[in-house]
Structure formats: C-alpha cells, structure tokens
C-alpha cells in the first residue's frame, strides 16, 4: 500500500474524500448511536480548506480512494507533534489494513500524535491501542457521547 499526500484543493479529490467521509461517518454514527457527528455536516468546500495535511491510499490503478487521514501539525515543546483529526476507511475495505497503514505512516513523520474517538467506537479504540496509543483521558461531550483522548509518543 502506498500512502501519498492528497491535493485536497482539487475538486475531484475533495469530492472523493467527501463521499468516503459521508459513508464512513454514517456507519460510525450508527455504531456509536450518535447521529450528530460533525464530519457529517462538513461540505466539500470545508474539506478543500482543511489547514493541515491529508494522506491517502488509493486502490489498484489509482481508481478508488480507500482511506484518508487528516493531520494537523503543531509544536509541542521541542517535539514535532500532530493531531489525527479524521481517519476514514471505505467500509468495503475495513479490516484490510488501510487504517493501520495510514496510522503507521504518520507515526514515521511525528514524535507525538494525539487522537480522540468515541468511547463506543471499539474498532477505532482497538486500532489506536494496537498502534501504541494510550488513553490519556475521557471527555464527556453530552450524556450520549464520551470521547477517549489518546496519545502516542515515539520513544526511539
């Protein structure tokens, strides 16, 4: 699997991401029983304006976008750090290593990574824990949604 930086200002790329995002977050909303996930309200223009970096994996012959990861970089003391804002995988390719490959790739680029996900999103929690992330805290958004806040550090 080849991970590449996506040119999100391209209308075709932004449209592909938006379609993938709507499908994935609709599935997640059902899984966590919380229909008001903010990415479901995001427009193509907002995707095109994302201030960070978006990496992606395409299928054979660059025909289909299989997964993307949105990263916002920042300096955390002397460390090069980033937040995983969104990790999205095509449902037909779930549990095929796409999400894991994207996370592993960004782990080679940063010393510290942060991410949050719903306490009810067992597949995402499992993915992050298997990649070495540790839960730092939990944040109650409302009575239906609690987020787990994770941190990963490169100790090498």
UniProtKB/TrEMBL annotation:
InterPro entries: Acyl_CoA_acyltransferase (IPR016181), GNAT_dom (IPR000182)
Pfam family, one: Acetyltransf_1
Domain N-acetyltransferase: start-end pairs: 3-154
Gene Ontology MF term list: acyltransferase activity, transferring groups other than amino-acyl groups
Keyword Transferase: yes
CDD domains (UniProt xref): NAT_SF
Keywords: Transferase
Protein name, UniProt field: Acetyltransferase (GNAT) family protein
């Amino acid at each position: 699997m080849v991970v590449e930086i996506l040119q999100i200002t391209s209308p075709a790329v932004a449209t592909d991401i938006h379609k993938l995002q709507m499908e994935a977050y609709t599935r997640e909303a059902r899984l966590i029983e919380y229909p008001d996930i903010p990415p479901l309200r995001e427009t193509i223009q907002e995707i095109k304006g994302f201030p960070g970096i978006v990496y992606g994996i395409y299928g054979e012959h660059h025909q289909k976008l299989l997964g993307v990861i949105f990263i916002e970089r920042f300096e955390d003391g002397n460390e090069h750090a980033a937040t995983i804002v969104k990790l999205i995988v095509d449902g037909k390719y779930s549990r095929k290593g796409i999400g894991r490959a994207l996370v592993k790739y960004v782990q080679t680029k940063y010393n510290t990574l942060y991410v949050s996900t719903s306490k009810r999103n067992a597949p995402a929690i499992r993915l992050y824990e298997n990649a070495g992330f540790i839960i730092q805290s939990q944040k109650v958004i409302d009575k239906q949604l609690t987020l787990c806040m994770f941190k990963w550090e490169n100790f090498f």
